[in-house]
């Protein structure tokens, strides 16, 4: 592997998007010298990354000793009971694609059309991005004749070879209880915003391995000496000649020494919603107030850097299940000896529970007219100004998880399932800024903005009630795990029951009082967390409207410098964000190839 310090293109960040860009350009242009600088370690054939079921233990319990995550701690907020929210970001080659839930969820077509029309980004509409997404995937589930899914790309999409009966039962109850929405074969066709269905996943249908960008775009080019990867190399800042980007400084974990590398043609920052604005600010690009506080001379006045932080916040509620329920608790929390037979099966045939992510069913929901009455005036303006204009935008995303994902103690002999639900377009946004000068390891000044708008609060309240009714009708239901539910009054008809059985599909719904609603809101404020979908902090929109990059991903006020990752999203998307990261990567590679006269 070359140790040269001059390359044609430097990719500052080897996450999901960065690997797509580097891999596509390097594969099509044999003489092109591309360097990926990744802050985290390699993921090549590492069990905790390639075995799907391992993600739960990794993602639900990231800790300071893990090299695969960078933990970002927010400022405390009254809206979440004065807690500091910890948001992990993938810090490993492949980024989020190497550590995420692997659920295949795609944005609404109108999400990308809004990027193009409202935020003035020609070439970023759904008509432009859907073909790129088709090229990048192989969808192995049954698809319609007019499918928006691909059939010959490197990223493979599958359904589990073994459905767990928890998911099957959830969909069966949803079909009969929530007849207004129903169950569909494909709820990720860019148009369906109000249905339940099988949740496809980024898992290889034959090998049972995670389908990430590191293995499918970078590691598969091991013989390409011009594609260079330097891991555990954290980028400090971009080097400039005037306002022309000419390279970057980075710190190697092994020696903590500053190294410099140079790009003859282009620098691409692809360090995510936390990393990319931080690199820009340490490079002197950002708001004057932020830079002055950190003692950094301003190169470009760009106050949009670090603002409009977006995420999907998520809630998990847990339920006890009978012994007949097929869960993966024994896999997720089992001893090495207990896991070995499952590992052997996965190694031999690529199937079994090791090839599972425990999320086999999912949903996207929009409130009905009756639901809107229940949501009340707090949500009315948000609905009229936003959701009513775009009928393909869901309000809530979620599904049943076949495992206990809580933090309280488990009964080793018990079985559990969880219902998770995430708000897809929060009404309020936050910010991410540097706070320790040029120190790339210093904690950031991070404000998340979760539940700071009452419109978001009432949506979560409505969703909790709706999903609880489905859970109570599932045949496997045996009660609620009290520490992952609201603390209702002992006199309340809504009080949670640690030991219970399923109710009839036509049983009356629980009647909640104003006090019960307050208990639900309090529960959400105490327990809400991140869905690991950070975005929006280097928005692609006009500079006059707080934009950081233009529609060709060029950083305003500079040359030979682009940002390409989820930080460029000008507004949120109604889905888990891996698919959008793939779209950004494919589009960025196309733009770069056009500008540098490269093949693709």
TrEMBL record:
It catalyses: a pyranoside + acceptor = a pyranosid-3-ulose + reduced acceptor; pyranose + acceptor = pyranos-2,3-diulose + reduced acceptor; a pyranoside + acceptor = a pyranosid-3,4-diulose + reduced acceptor; pyranose + acceptor = pyranos-3-ulose + reduced acceptor. Keywords: FAD, Flavoprotein, Secreted. Gene3D superfamilies: FAD/NAD(P)-binding domain, Glucose Oxidase, domain 3. Its main location: secreted. GO terms for molecular function: flavin adenine dinucleotide binding; pyranose dehydrogenase (acceptor) activity. Pfam families: GMC_oxred_C, GMC_oxred_N. Residues 272-286 form the Glucose-methanol-choline oxidoreductase N-terminal domain. This is pyranose dehydrogenase (acceptor). It comes from Ephemerocybe angulata. The lineage of its organism: Eukaryota, Fungi, Dikarya, Basidiomycota, Agaricomycotina.
